[in-house]
Specification:
Chain B: Keywords: Membrane, Transmembrane, Transmembrane helix. The structure holds two protein chains of two kinds. By secondary structure, chain A is mainly alpha-helical. Chain A contains five helices and no strands. In chain A, 43% of the residues are buried. Chain B is mostly helical. Chain B has two domains: 1-66, no CATH class; 88-244, no CATH class. Chain B is built from twelve helices and no strands. The chains are: A mainly alpha, B mainly alpha. Chains A and B meet through helix 1, helix 2, helix 3, helix 4 and helix 5 of A and helix 2, helix 3, helix 4, helix 5 and helix 6 of B.
Chain lengths: 115, 245
């Protein structure tokens, strides 16, 4: 329970922080950076925080289902957007994988040659 | 008589639309069904549990006549916990940070190029095939893990479910073709394979990477977390700047 409390506390800090400072950032994202800073300062991850975060990340897929269900409803309402979205997602992903993998492979080969 | 019975019946069933209990039970049940089918079919990425769950829920809502908005309102607790899960991503980011030291320069250059390239390529494809402004805004943040993409999309005025659906779809495409594609390209370095999967295919790709082997998985979650962090910081700031001009 202590881990979940810490995560909720940082989520609250994130929401408060973005509102008080009028930051153009989503609250949970600021909360993530604040928690990262807290962990970096402490120098280790408390076991309770590790357990709670593993639990939530493990069930991320479940938490996403309501939003993902909206995808089909959105597409049904905007039929002319189906092709652009599917083309961008399919071919965009394949092309990005090719370029990113080639680039990093070359960079690592270069690093190894320099050694 | 028949009409009376129907009205009474509809009234009793309105519980299905009004109660978070039914929505949550339905969602958890659909997820378990999805996991079971996925496992039974040898973890074939096209039968991803989220995909099966979404389809079953859509069928249920259509059959019972419950609107999506109604279902979404009942599931508000899930969007709150999604925020908590986003905060929780700080933990793997912190834990995987030591991996950066092994290939610091290669990882950082790839991160910067990939972070700009992934949305640019997606937006170019979408623009050429006739995407609307709202679609483009929703795709702008699609190149990161879903909870971050949804939060960012909301803050720049896109449609969060569109971003969420696209990220999951992208993840499935990446998990399906990514490893085979890199085999063909003769790329066998685990750091490269993992980081590429995490950067391009996020949570679904990372799950696939962990199935391949733990080193690939670790580099994949590093790619996922770093891409998410940098996009979450930069996309809303860019959008903010863009709007002030």
């Amino acid at each position: 329970m202590r881990g979940l409390f810490i995560l909720l506390l940082f989520q609250t800090f994130g929401e408060l922080g973005t509102r008080l400072l009028n930051l153009p950032l989503p609250g949970p994202v600021l909360g993530m950076f604040l928690l990262f800073a807290y962990l970096a300062v402490r120098g280790f991850v408390p076991e309770s925080v590790d357990k709670s975060s593993q639990f939530l990340i493990h069930y991320l897929g479940l938490l996403l289902i309501p939003a993902a269900t909206g995808f089909g409803y959105y597409l049904a309402d905007a039929e002319d957007q189906i092709i652009p979205i599917l083309v961008a997602a399919t071919f965009g992903t394949i092309l990005t994988i090719i370029i990113v993998a080639l680039l990093m492979d070359k960079l690592i080969a270069q690093e190894n040659n320099n050694e | 008589m028949n009409k009376l019975l129907n009205a009474d019946f509809t009234e009793r069933l309105s519980f299905i639309a009004d109660s978070p209990l039914v929505g949550i039970t339905l969602t958890v049940g659909a997820f378990l069904l999805g996991q079971r089918i996925y496992e039974k079919c040898g973890r074939f990425p096209l039968l991803h549990p989220i995909l099966i769950a979404v389809l079953s829920i859509t069928v249920f809502l259509q059959l019972t006549g419950v609107s999506y908005d109604n279902y979404k309102d009942n599931m508000a607790i899930f969007s709150l916990l999604l925020g908590t899960a986003t905060v929780a991503l700080a933990v793997p980011l912190y834990q995987q940070l030591h991996l950066i030291r092994s290939h610091a320069k290669a990882l950082l250059i790839t991160l910067l190029v990939g972070f700009l390239l992934a949305p640019a390529i997606a937006l170019a494809f979408a623009w050429f095939t006739g995407a609307s402004a709202t679609t483009l805004l929703s795709l702008a943040a699609k190149s990161v893990t879903t909870p971050i993409a949804m939060a960012v999309t909301e803050s720049i005025g896109g449609i969060p479910p569109l971003a969420a659906g696209t990220v999951i779809f992208v993840g499935i495409v990446g998990a399906l073709v990514g490893p085979a594609l890199m085999d063909r390209m003769n790329i066998h370095n685990k750091a490269v394979r993992g980081f590429t999967l995490g950067l391009t295919s996020h949570a679904v790709g990372t799950a696939r990477a962990f199935e391949l082997d733990p080193v690939t998985g670790a580099f994949s979650s590093l790619g996922l977390a770093l891409t998410g962090a940098i996009t979450a910081l930069i996309v809303p700031l860019l959008w903010h700047l863009f709007q002030t001009f």
